[in-house]
Inverse folding.
């Protein structure tokens, strides 16, 4: 019983063995109750399906299957037509955007003189340039007591530190202002004559 | 087992006759041509088995007939893709299985959760009509056999049902079934063994038509 090969018995039942093997398995089945029972069950299984097949209704007509195969045979693949492109309203727009993007890229990354500061540098202390000769005079502290001085100063000549103070020759009133520190070289501030 | 009718116990010679070399030769000769006469020969030779297989999977005669036509329509269209004419039966069963699965899916899609021929307990009630030339006794025996098979098949999943029918009803080899189902040989053997247990339970429970 332990050495029984039910697969061989099944192969015998289904006629899948060579004649030599079939004879050998048949001889074993005759003397083995377990294999004999297995063969009987296999025959019963098969037989019940055979009886069921006999009770099946007749096959439907062949013409329907043939017609169906022919109806669905021409599987013509129709290529899709390419969509008609609508005319562009601004055909230059993409080119312009591209050029701008390229220029921005070149400006940011390619030009070596240009650096991009990701962090703002600390603000430098304001540099106050000393006034030189020919500069405009802005300092309100140099007003001469005129109540409404014109806001547009004229160009004045600053006196040389070595020379004596001279009156302005630009049509100013020429008044000198004593700042009180005995240094008249830095006290002049000229304004155009008041409108009459 | 002793109570089973003698007609249900077939001899090995009867099985061998179904898978004879002559049948294979005939099938081989019929292929490679789209001649309607040859296609009709293929249909008449393999149609009944394919229809039984489809009816077992779908549980509905009308659906099985429709699936049968679809199976052969596909087979006729792709006949030139069959590499080995000797293996036309597994090839046809493979197409039939795909058609049945698509039919079941379509049926589920349209909302019918239960098969028309299937009751709430999952039992198949197939439409088995006796042939006109059979005796009433043979007709009754066939209907009872069909009842036993259908009760067993009704307890099985679709795949297990398919492999049981392919092996026992249609006599396909384990290798052919494995190739058809896309399973390993070991899985095929296990599934058929478990399906057989259910079928044998139904067979042993049969007491001379009392069920």
């Amino acid at each position: 019983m332990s050495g029984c090969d039910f697969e061989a018995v099944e192969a015998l039942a289904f006629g899948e063995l060579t004649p030599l093997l079939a004879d050998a398995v048949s001889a074993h089945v005759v003397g083995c109750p377990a294999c004999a029972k297995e063969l009987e069950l296999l025959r019963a299984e098969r037989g019940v399906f055979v009886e069921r097949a006999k009770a099946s209704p007749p096959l439907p007509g062949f013409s329907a299957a043939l017609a169906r195969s022919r109806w669905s045979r021409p599987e013509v693949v129709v290529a899709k037509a390419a969509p008609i492109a609508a005319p562009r309203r601004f055909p230059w727009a993409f080119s312009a955007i591209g050029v701008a993007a390229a220029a921005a890229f070149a400006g940011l990354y390619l030009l070596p003189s240009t650096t991009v500061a990701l962090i703002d540098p600390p603000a430098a202390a304001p540099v106050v340039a000393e006034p030189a000769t020919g500069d405009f005079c802005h300092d309100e502290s140099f007003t001469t007591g005129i109540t409404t001085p014109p806001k547009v100063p004229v160009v004045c000549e600053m006196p040389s530190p070595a020379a004596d103070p001279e009156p302005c020759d630009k049509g100013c009133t020429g008044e000198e202002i004593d700042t009180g520190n005995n240094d008249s070289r830095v006290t002049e501030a000229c304004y155009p004559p008041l409108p009459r | 087992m002793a109570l089973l009718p003698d007609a249900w116990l077939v001899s090995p010679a009867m099985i061998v006759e179904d898978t004879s070399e002559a049948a294979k030769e005939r099938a081989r000769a019929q292929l490679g041509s789209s001649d309607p006469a040859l296609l009709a020969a293929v249909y008449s030779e393999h149609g009944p088995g394919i229809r039984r297989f489809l009816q077992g999977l779908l549980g509905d005669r009308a659906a099985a007939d429709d699936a049968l036509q679809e199976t052969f329509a596909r087979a006729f269209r792709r006949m030139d893709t069959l590499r080995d004419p000797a293996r036309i039966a597994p090839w046809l069963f493979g197409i039939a299985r795909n058609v049945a699965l698509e039919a079941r899916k379509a049926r589920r899609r349209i909302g019918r959760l239960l098969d028309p021929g299937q009751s709430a307990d999952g039992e198949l009630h197939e439409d088995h009509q006796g042939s006109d030339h059979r005796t009433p006794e043979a007709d009754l025996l066939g209907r009872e056999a069909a009842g036993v098979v259908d009760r067993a098949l009704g307890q099985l999943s679709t795949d297990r049902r398919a492999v049981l029918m392919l092996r026992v009803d249609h006599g396909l080899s384990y290798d052919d079934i494995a190739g058809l189902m896309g399973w390993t040989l070991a899985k095929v053997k296990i599934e058929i063994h478990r399906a057989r247990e259910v079928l044998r339970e139904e067979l042993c429970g049969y007491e001379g038509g009392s069920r």
Summary: DSSP finds five helices and no strands in chain A. Confidence is low (pLDDT under 50) at residues 184-188 of chain A.
